[in-house]
Amino acid sequence: MTLVYVLILIAAFLMGSLPTGYLVAKSKGIDIKTVGSGNIGATNVTRAMGKGWGAFVLVIDALKGFLPVLFVKLYFRSLAQPDFYALMAVTGILAVAGHVFTPFLKFKGGKGIATTLGMLIAIDPVFALVVLIVWLAAFLITRVSSVGALSAALSLPFIAWFLYHNKAVMDVMITFAAFMTVFLLFTHRENIKRLYLGEEKPFKKK
User: Fold this and answer.
1) FRET partner for 162 with CA separation of 20 to 30 A, picked from 12, 23, 173, 199?
2) Are 149 and 96 in contact (CB under 8 A)?
3) Residue 204 predicted with pLDDT over 80
């Protein structure tokens, strides 16, 4: 059974590693790494190619987190609850790590927000919905994508604490959420720097 877990985690990382934004842009003759922020995520694709392609990349990147966690959720329900949630969480983390550190682009990928949302939908749709509401509220107020992402990241441990009442499961989910908060703050470190300097660009209302 240990070998099965290891194979699932490897598969999750590889699925997360698919550089969706880079491939979509390249199919249109664009090197997304040289455009805008140089990031391969949905936000930069939207700026470079429009909302339609940005939405496509967002959905595919979310599926990279959703599908491996859904597999775990469907096939390992017999595990004790804390172990079940821990396996889903670790699987999701590996998918996000694959997206951020994709070996297909010399370990330089996206920032992990869409893939994180996808794995949260698979783990607990209610959790994901609350995170999405936080992101959307912060984005609509500021029109800055990174503010929405950072607000959502910072909210993760508090949402986990609020939603889970089984002590063992709550401990797993708060630990997982806290790790994701730190990880997403790390992936957004350049955005944090630009926000501090007042250089982060908002999306313009049309």
Assistant:
1) 12
2) no
3) no
